[in-house]
Write a structure and sequence with these properties.
Layout (H helix, E strand, L loop, with lengths): L9 H5 L10 E6 L7 E7 L3 E6 L3 E2 L2 E5 L4 H12 L3 H4 L5 E5 L4 E5 L5 E2 L12 H16 L9 H13 L17 H9 L2 H15 L4 E3 L8 E4 L2 E4 L6 E3 L1 H14 L4 H10 L6 H17 L10 H15 L3
Antiparallel strand pairs: 1-2, 2-3, 3-7, 4-5, 6-7, 8-10, 9-12, 10-11
Helix pairs in contact: 5-7, 6-11, 8-10, 10-11
The structure holds adenosine-5'-triphosphate and magnesium ion.
Amino acid sequence: MIDLNEHSSLEMLHSLPLWGKDEKLLSVEPAGESNMNLVLRVNTSIRSVILKQSKPYVRKFPQILAPVNRIEIELCYYQLIEDDDILSGYSPKVIHYNAEHHILLIEDLGNGIDFNTIYAKDYKWDDNDFHSISRYLNALHALEVSNFPDNMEMKKLNHEHLFRFPFLEENGFDLDIVQPGLQKISLKYKTDAEFKAALELLGKRYLAIGTTLLHGDFYPASWLKTENGVKIIDTEFAYMGDSEYDLGVLFAHFDLARMDESYQKTFLQLYQHSYAEDLVNAYRGMEIMRRLIGIAQLPLSLTLAEKKSLLEKARNYILPQ
Ligand SMILES: Nc1ncnc2c1ncn2[C@@H]1O[C@H](COP(=O)(O)OP(=O)(O)OP(=O)(O)O)[C@@H](O)[C@H]1O
Ligand SMILES: [Mg+2]
């Protein structure tokens, strides 16, 4: 495997067996914000493509090992939804896959921006965007899928940051650097045995294999707003699980973005599948908490008091009083 980086030369890229016979490479640049993988936009004499390479580690934090075959999960996922009339319109087309170098070439969806903007105070949802997100999840959870890889190594990596690390009393992550006072607030949950037992059970459930194909990371940074509408990317955490997981994670981000409850209601009115509300809530609570006190922080616009009350709400979602 050739381990590429954002400074790899055009010559080096061109030497890889990814290109047409007479195709010339004209320029290369990072495609956007990314932590896990190398994601480049490559302009050639005939097209512009996105090159995504997974590595045996987290690109931004090379000391953290990660399963190198995660790019195959994306490939599998995109191939599966390619034949679905609805889902295919929301996803980049697969152009080429190279197993030796763990590289996936996908369609360039253009210079879209992700939806991390929803956390801003004055964000106004465009109805079309909101309905796109609803349509996508409806269509995804309707798919009948067999033989999807279990993606267990990625789930274990994720499990650590969803269910364990944020709740360790001594994890070496000083939350006061995120926001002064947050460390003390977090201790209440880190020392709550009953709550942590419930969380542990939920974590086991996350690691189990279910019946619905999930995106697995269905939150604003996986949605791109492009000239051709909303597109959904970054499917490396996909797995067969509880549909409630994607729903819960989604609603957690509604909370983190301080969206009115009516959005969730509308979303569920449009949602065409059955679900267990308590399980949606449990995953929702976990996602709120791990985003507030875990390592994967977001560009939130919440005061300390707002975070405190959200954490309490999240605890009650996981362990209703
Ligand atoms: N098909 C595409 N078309 C246009 N831009 C894209 C495409 N795929 C990715 N990008 C851009 O590259 C960024 C990173 O892509 P992606 O989220 O897939 O990488 P990642 O390394 O898995 O990121 P993360 O660290 O969030 O998991 C996206 O936010 C987007 O800006
Ligand atoms: Mg990713």
